[in-house]
Amino acid sequence: MAGTQSDETNTLFSPYKMGKFSLSHRVVLAPMTRCRALNGIPRPALAEYYSQRSTPGGFLISEGTMISETAAGFPHVPGIYTEEQVEAWKKVVDAVHAKGSIIFCQLWHVGRASHQVYQPDGGAPISSTSKPISRRWRILMPDGTYGIYPEPQALKTSEIPELAEQYRRAALNAIRAGFDGIEIHGAHGYLIDQFLKDGINDRTDEYGGSLANRCKFLIQVVQAVVSAIGAERVGVRVSPAIDHLDATDSNPLTLGLAVIERLNKLQLQFGSKLTYLHITQPRYTAYGQTESGRPGSEDEEAHMIRTWRRAFQGTFMCSGGFTRELGMQAVAEGDADLVSYGRLFIANPDLVLRFKVNAPLNKYIRKTFYTQDPVVGYTDYPFLLRSHL
Ligand SMILES: Cc1cc2nc3c(=O)[nH]c(=O)nc-3n(C[C@H](O)[C@H](O)[C@H](O)COP(=O)(O)O)c2cc1C
């Protein structure tokens, strides 16, 4: 199976060589927005939070981080487009490195999943389309209430290259801040996904219509960041089968394959592999709580993931509803090289240790996912007691 590194059965705790990075295990911190970076500046609480979740040879992906001032759609998410932000991130990255972990910065633009209150000039958010997100979804406002997504402004064809340029500059800033690499957030109904999905993208120019056209923006972003920091520091995240924020596609399997085919081709052109491909599955229900997305049948999902995994020529990471056992199984059966964990990692700063010794897990508290307290629901989840070991 592509990407596996020995004939012996791999486990979540086997080392893995992810390009130039040597990982000591495969339990990855999934990127997660936590709204603790007041006014876009990472503060000391972030250093504490990420450091708590660091292990020697571990791999962390930062929360979605704004590439420019039009990129935000949540309160108090960090940015990586000003000097002040870069300087503040350095302290977070240093804290993670001090514990021996590797950390990538997830580069994020929410596109139409924003609101005038988050836009610099109070204007409409930008997107591939001028269709708003339906009222099935609500946007979290700065005062903690929920609002309605406004009508976005469809980008003109001539404006799109500037967006790719914003990703490029943000990638350079991330490297200056000390990050080991970046992840392009192409998932979950945000800007790049708004181009990829035929349920959203209604463009009639070279960025809409055919699969090739819908993939074009993502590919331009990948080319832009790779030109700046090199393929071996770039991961890509997509979620072809997730319909969060109305991001539906008429054929997720084919869309995923179209993205993969193009990434494979780019790798050949670059003469170097991307760090990884990271796919979120809609199987969010695995431990009892539906998040979003259409939970397909288990067989359907497994078939898609295996097809994508086999097609991608490089490191493959999966995410979405994984328990310890499901992660063990995915790695042992060669369905993934790495597994990223979200909610379980929020509630268990020492998740890697708990998984290793098969210890009980703390339960996550949903109501503090997106609140601003620098401690409560953020860095106050308990570590294992010695008596558990
Ligand atoms: C509070 C919260 C914030 C999240 N923020 C992001 C984000 O910023 N970027 C992203 O790509 N995914 C984000 N996700 C999705 C997670 O990365 C992950 O894929 C998802 O939670 C499924 O994994 P899990 O079942 O292990 O939680 C978020 C999830 C949660 C629960």
From TrEMBL:
The keyword tRNA-binding does not apply. Keywords: Flavoprotein, FMN, NADP, Oxidoreductase. GO terms for biological process: jasmonic acid biosynthetic process; oxylipin biosynthetic process. Residues 12-361 form the NADH:flavin oxidoreductase/NADH oxidase N-terminal domain. This is NADH:flavin oxidoreductase/NADH oxidase N-terminal domain-containing protein. Belongs to the NADH:flavin oxidoreductase/NADH oxidase family. GO terms for molecular function: 12-oxophytodienoate reductase activity; FMN binding. One of its GO terms (cellular component) is peroxisome. The keyword Repeat does not apply.
